[in-house]
């Protein structure tokens, strides 16, 4: 089994990322014996962990459990996975098209967890579900001074807003040093509780289905919010040079709070000295993680070669030409080379077929990717047999790419388009299986020598002509 150990592939089914406005309300088949949601905000993206103990209260066996997700953030989902708590087995899940309007006007969509075998009436199951969003809080306030600490605000619900009754429920926000509730609670019972690095709603008991109470919560975040609005990543595979060459073009934006009074270099230097360069909502240095054992790394931008680059093992520390404050952008290109052996496997069963597995992303940690276009360019004459992506993609194409010295039909170029990815999932590997006759390896060499030879012949003929003229 080619993909046996790529668990992502079986764990997630393609997400429906567009919300259809058709009405959908799940059947009332379950009771949440315990509903525990933890929202992790220690990264510049958000992850929701659900720990659920559920009981089938229907009179019939049931195969589906529905998880509510506000419709406006459905397109921001990077990944949705679920697993049984007792065993390390993933359960299929996906987003249901259709929305449900709650009494307070909020539009809710549903993620469905699809059990392999029906759950009998009265049966209890313990589940874990995790949803990663390419989403962070909004700067609150939107503008700050150069020496201020940035705060972000997140909109959360104090209740599960589950389609099922919850015997016990709690919602925790975890991962910041402090929290402040911006929306007053209706009653004392609903006020959030500040714990160490955590803010907690509940536990609540006997919570009715669809009960909702929205709150905005703010917390300090003293680092930039790196968003790659566009990434174009090309990986050139060459059997002839025995290399995989990476070239990436990044358009980065810091989505943090903007500067209230503009940039002042003197004030900036003072701040850097005082804080020893630590903290701040600006990008001073980008730590790009390269592939292991890579060589020949370079960085260029609009102005030219970027010289403020330092290699630290498999990291490339790049200092942009200016500190990238909230709302500012920086575009650059980075490239490096690996030997092919780092990624290539020869298929044991079929002659002339190869399997190459390449990370979906490299680049900076703790980053959101709005659009990423990842291409694998195979050697000339290679034929694609099979591909696998660990992450749901919006579409994939096979085109031809021509480079210098190419024969007529060029290189097969596979391109995967992703939207709303997060760096944490980027280590997943794209797998491409292709057939490549090793005799085509010499084709290029022959072509080059033919070309050179042809050039020489022409020169010869010219010389002879000249001689003849003399
Ligand atoms: C939370 O903040 C958003 C954006 O600032 C605002 O539109 C919304 O009304 C706030 N919600 C509540 C419940 O205060
Ligand atoms: C990188 O190089 C080191 C030392 O040569 C080697 O031990 C390691 O296996 C290499 N890693 C990869 C992924 O090839
Ligand atoms: C980066 O590229 C985008 C798209 O071409 C452009 O709109 C933006 O101005 C560029 N930013 C910088 C700082 O060069
Ligand atoms: C694939 O998706 C990208 C981004 O969503 C889009 O720019 C591109 O045109 C699409 N290509 C095809 C063939 O649909």
Automatic annotation (TrEMBL):
Gene Ontology terms: biological process: protein N-linked glycosylation via asparagine
Membrane topology: Single-pass type I membrane protein
Keyword Acetylation tagged: no
Pfam assignment, any one: Ribophorin_I
Predominant localisation class: endoplasmic reticulum
Keyword Endoplasmic reticulum in record: yes
GO CC annotation: oligosaccharyltransferase complex
Pathway(s) where this gene product acts: Protein modification; protein glycosylation
Stretch forming the signal peptide: 1-21
Record GO terms (molecular function): transferase activity
Self-association and partners: Component of the oligosaccharyltransferase (OST) complex.
Family the entry assigns: Belongs to the OST1 family.
Protein's name according to its UniProt entry: Dolichyl-diphosphooligosaccharide--protein glycosyltransferase subunit 1
Native species: Maudiozyma barnettii
